Amino acid sequence: MYLEYYKLNTKPFQITTDPRFLWLGENHKEALAVLKYGIMDNKGLVLLTGDVGIGKTTLINALVEGLGDDVVVASVSDPNLDLIDFLTFTAKSFGIEKDITSKGEFLFHFNEFLKQTFQQNKKALLIIDESQKLRHDTLEEIRLLSNIEQSGTKLINIFLVGQNEFNDMLWEDRNRALRQRITVRYGIHPLSRSDTSNYINHRLKIAGAQKPIFTGDAIREVASFAEGLPRSINVICDHALLTGYVKSATRIDAKIVKECANDLKIPLPIAKKKNRTDKTGLSGRLSVPGMLKKPIYMFAALMLVWFAVSFFIGKNIDSSPFSFNVLTRIMSVVTMEEPEKPAERSRVVFEQDTGVFHTIDTSIAAPQKDTGEKNPEKIIIYFAPDSNDFTSEAIASLDRAALMLKQHPNQQASSIGYTDDSGVYSYNKEHSRFRANFVKNYLVGKGVNPGQVKCIGMGPDNPADGSNASEKLKSRHRVEIVFD
Questions:
Q1: Are residues 42 and 183 part of one domain?
Q2: Which domain holds residue 467?
Q3: In a domain, 342, yes or no
Q4: DSSP per-residue string spanning 71-136
Q5: DSSP 8-state secondary structure symbol assigned to residue 214
Q6: Which pLDDT tens digit goes with each residue over 431-463?
Q7: Residue 20 belongs to some domain of the structure
Q8: Of the candidates 308, 261, 355, which has an alpha carbon nearest to the alpha carbon of residue 33?
């Protein structure tokens, strides 16, 4: 409808994943690189999370488009299936033309398929989109599938792609075994204002625009209302172009964008709500006119009314129905402090170091007053050689470390992982960093600011000695929380 008016060849802001319009910001480029690394290095279980409309599916499509013939890909777009249906769909997606009537049949045929793929020097990749819909029994089956290997090499890579709440599911105690097997995780965060501008202009250019259509103010409004979500950007911009055409506007300005956001019933961003509240004095409760906001002014006003009424009705102050005691009671109501609004019980924070979103219980996350007490030099968390589980002793030590970091919000710490020297050096380094991140994730979940802790994987480097062989082995599988 508006294509000819704005001299466009095609609609620039459709919400379908058209590869012609692919645009990747720095965060998306990094996410794509991480996913490619997960395949090339056979990392097994890889986790990608992000908000609704952030572009996860678009990113996965771009990944698949860029893969060579040496990667066999199967994708499950809606995993909310019974276990046998999930297994059957997975087998069919990989091209396994066998009748699957039981879990046993699936495992037999699937193992044969993976072995053949490995012998052909190919990799198998299973992508599960909308992973937050997975059922627990299916998640457990996925964990078992990720264990399939041959000659020390993973035979299948599984990418779990889901919304941010999937992180909360993984932190449930019943999913701890699966969580510990995730070797690579990445969280996509919303586009910045400059990224939003580049995104809009890129799509317009691909659609054939010869000159700018959206003003700078309009793009700022789009960024504000869409809050960095590509899908929301597309919806607002498409509606704005249609509205501009109806209004015969040669350029889309901020006013048109605001009108479209209102038509689409998009709520006002939090920052704008605050500004509007500050200007009008309205914040969801009864507000008094300017001078009467302060109790002293209201008291003075009521005194004037009291004297005026007393004068006109010809009574003295002591006999006035508007006695001082009545006024006192009135003032006790007028000046009564409002009850404090209940604090938010949780919030989501983004960890720049690992690219992970964390949900934090803010009832324990609020920084405590710095007591000035000196923290210990370090706290050591020990692991069994073949386990990533926390012992009860380790949890007690972690809780102690979390409390110290919350009481000293300016304190920095390092989570440093160590392993023994058996096996492949590169794997040991990666495993030690995984454990270091695992410890950090626990601390963040307890309310520690992610910026307070950095992660380092030392692998078998700088081993700690023990007085006997048993203590020496134990000391090598550890994470040290070192207070800087």
A1: yes
A2: 357-483
A3: no
A4: EEEEEES---S-HHHHHHHHHHHTT--S---SHHHHHHHHHHHHHHHHHTT-EEEEEESSGGG--H
A5: B
A6: 788 888 888 878 887 888 888 998 888 888 876
A7: no
A8: 355
Among the three residues 167, 188, 209, which one is the final residue of a domain in this structure? 188
Residues 36 and 138 in one domain: yes
Whether residue 15 is contained in a domain is answered as no
Mean pLDDT computed over every residue of the chain: 78
Which tokens sit at 27?
């965060």
Task: Give the residue from 388, 433, 354 showing the smallest Cα distance to 185.
Answer: 354
> Could you tell me the CATH number of the domain that includes residue 242?
1.10.8.60
Q: Please give the structure tokens belonging to residue 221.
A: 């409004």
Which burial class, exposed, middle or buried, applies to 380 when counting CB atoms under 10 A from its CB (0-12, 13-18, 19+)? Answer: middle
Q: pLDDT for 304-320, tens place per residue?
A: 665 555 555 544 444 44
Using 50 as the pLDDT threshold, list the residues of the chain that sit under it. 270-294, 314-371
Whether pTM exceeds 0.70 = no
Q: Which two tokens stand for residue 169?
A: 């599911």
| 430 and 454, same domain (yes or no) | yes
What integer pLDDT is reported at residue 71 of this predicted model? Answer: 93
**Model pLDDT, residue 10:** 92
Q: How many domains does the chain have?
A: 4
In DSSP terms, which residues pair with 413 in a beta bridge?
453, 483
> Is 277 a domain residue?
no
